[in-house]
Design brief:
Number of domains: 4
Number of strands: 24
Radius of gyration: 23 Å
CATH topology of the largest domain: Immunoglobulin-like
Helix content: 10-25%
CATH architecture of the largest domain: Sandwich
Distance between the termini: 36 Å
CATH superfamily of the largest domain: Macroglobulin (MG2) domain
Number of helices: 5
CATH class of the largest domain: Mainly Beta
Largest sheet: 6 strands, mixed
Amino acid sequence: MVFRKKIVISAIIFLFASAPLPAMLSLDAAAFQGNAGQSSLEIYYTIPRKSLNWQSKNGLFHGQIPLITKISFRGNIIFTDTSLVQDKCLDPAQIDSEQALPHQMSLAIPPGIYTISANLNGTKQSVSLEYFVPNFNDTELRVSDIECISDLAEPSPGSIFNKYGKYAVIPYPSRLYSLDYPVLNFLFEIYNMSWSDDKESKYEIKTRILDLNKKLMLDLGSETYSAPLSNFPSIHSFDISALSGGTMNLEIEVHDLTNGNKSLSQKRIYMLNPDESIAFLPKDDPTIMSEKELDSLYYILQPLLSNTEKRLFKNSNLQAKQSFFNSFWAMRDPKPETRHNEYQLEINRRIQYANQHFNSQFRSGATSDKGIILLKYGFPDDVQVFRSTSNSKPYEIWHYYDIEGGVQFYFGDISGFNQYILIHSTKNGEFQDPNWHSQLKY
């Protein structure tokens, strides 16, 4: 097991002013060709700037927070890293909830399936993902994993984002796009292209976006290039505003035109639906929302409403519905004296996370079973992920240690379409099935 601790100072801030989404801890990864039989794994994060602990010093405020990363293989932790993420500002009270700090780390790792988890120490902000690290160390045509990026900048001395000796590549781990943020930037590497001495070697790159059923959603075209003498990065940018909302896969196909070999790589991305934007994230001010938007917000927030509140909303006209949500947020504001409603920001964060991670072709993430539990109880303290076997469908167990002395929620992909439903819980008042294992049998 490897333990590391380091200090990282971020000078780059994300602020999507045109699409004010509350920042959240986001996690992504990409693997590239390494040395000595290993791959190079890069892990990308965004950290909410408001999450830092701020102290005044010499006329400035200095903020910091420990970011803890763990990598597990077959249930055993094989790597632990603690990075002290730091930043400076003139007044932390002026930091908007949309601002986030990018961060990344890299390490050499053998090919395999790993669980990567990240946690902001002292908070309940945590996220994890299961990641397959391919083997790029052979002689076949290979495309690396895809890194979604927010910006390319000039490299600066010692920056963790410096790449290829000429770029500072800023990652975009949330991979969340919209009409306000429609530009998809990404890079990948190509390995083992053939080279011919007697004719010009060429290769073709096809780019497309598919839904989760592999249906073509957007064809971004193809381009033909002359093959270089050595491996190199391929950097691309596309406007994807023509997409409807949902969870999709960006797919890259590289075709070596010299020998006919092909290689594919995919990356999951998320597009907000302009016609159903309220189904992803509620606006801050209910008084500017239409009745359709208020009804959509009600549909999302039903798990948080009492029966009395539900009856009151259903019997209300537009003005009354606007007043209803004004009162709903105000009554739950834990610190009325502050500029922001912390409760509303937290609920927005949960909705955003649910729609980034739990969307399916049938339901938005916020209204899925996982999304409902997240909305009601917050982020779990621990998540166990069980892959499918010859005898069992895949399932997850969410652990909450501070509720009723410790409770669990069990979610299973019963349909096989990546739609996890609640199949059991030990929480009083939630669905329970002591024979939940039988639902997972093939």
